[in-house]
Amino acid sequence: MSHHSRVTRRLGLKTAVAAAVTLPLSSTALSLQHASAADRHDRHLEVMTFNLRRAGSAKPPDSWAVRRPVMRTLLRRERPHVLGTQEGLYAPVRDIAADLGADYAWIGTGRAGGSRDEFVTVFYDTRRLAPVEYDHFWLSDTPDVIGSNTWGGACTRMVTWVRFRDLRREGQEFYVLNTHLDNASQYARARAAGLIAHRISRLDRSLPLVVTGDFNAAAHKNPVYDTMLGAGLVDTWDTAVERTELYGTFHGYRPLKPYGDRIDWILATPGVRAHWASVNSFSLDGQFPSDHLPVQASLTLG
């Protein structure tokens, strides 16, 4: 992220924030359905959550070299104002920043600190949004200790949050929290949801708030979901006026599952209006950009 004199970060943060943005953004964005993407983009706040699939394998369909062009095409089509990603290692995060173009910046740090391990990155369109403050915390009994993991989860998990100012709506500020809960331990997921709920309660509750993430728990079927809604949030998929067909958001490069489990969510405070929601099934010549489908919501913050 290009540092801005009015951006502050919470005391005790010892890890770096970074941004890498170089290439111009394509202006040929296309719509998915129900409304043109350009029209939605002008009128609403476009939010996406996307598990990128850790770039570890060199074999198609999983290799980052094969997936990156498909990812680039999708993101340039959709042009979210806010993009919360999960599982991105440092190099792919920089690649995505370059592919989004010079009008985008990002905030994040590796879950082991600095550029190490996976990020839960918050990308944002600088033409629309300006960060006011940001921080990270770890999903453990010691949330301010970088890289901490105390609940027996398969790996370290964390949250990146940003307070944004909306440049098109004078005086409008809001929060974005992005996270990725544990894939193996329900106990760790439950404790993490409780911690996130507690941290939300400490923020300025007069401001709208949006939570993006891969929760590794099915909406409506897991106590983690109940905890997050119990924190005073609503599920934008459920509240949206219009939505696309529902697919299970983790497909693992297997055939898509209609009405499957939705483990990737965009949650918000009740005053946020969801006009449209999507589980985006975009692929290019049979290649998906990830083993997850991105979830999107077109919002008015109120």
Strand content: 25-35%
Report the average pLDDT across residues.
90
CATH class: Alpha Beta
In CATH terms, the superfamily is: Endonuclease/exonuclease/phosphatase
Question: What's the architecture in CATH terms?
Answer: 4-Layer Sandwich
What helical percentage do the residues reach?
A: 10-25%
Cα distance, first to last residue? 27 Å
The ordered string of helix (H) and strand (E) elements is EHEHEHEEEEEHEHEHEEEE
Strand order of the largest sheet: 1-6-7-8-9-12-10
The beta-strand count equals 14
Radius of gyration, Cα only, in angstroms?
Answer: 17 Å
Question: Can you give a write-up of this model?
Answer:
This protein has a single domain (38-300), classed as 4-Layer Sandwich (Deoxyribonuclease I, Chain A), CATH 3.60.10.10. The longest helix has 16 residues, at 186-201. The strands form 2 sheets. Strands 1-6-7-8-9-12-10 form a 7-stranded mixed beta sheet. The protein starts with 7 loop residues before the first strand and ends with a strand. The relative contact order is 0.16. It has 302 residues and is an alpha/beta fold. It contains 6 helices and 14 strands.
Quick overview of this protein structure:
The protein has helices at residues 37-43, 64-78, 90-100, 186-201, 223-230, 236-239, and strands at residues 8-9, 45-51, 82-86, 104-107, 122-125, 129-138, 158-166, 173-180, 209-214, 234-235, 242-243, 264-268, 273-279, 295-300. The chain has 302 residues and is α/β, with parallel strands linked by helices.
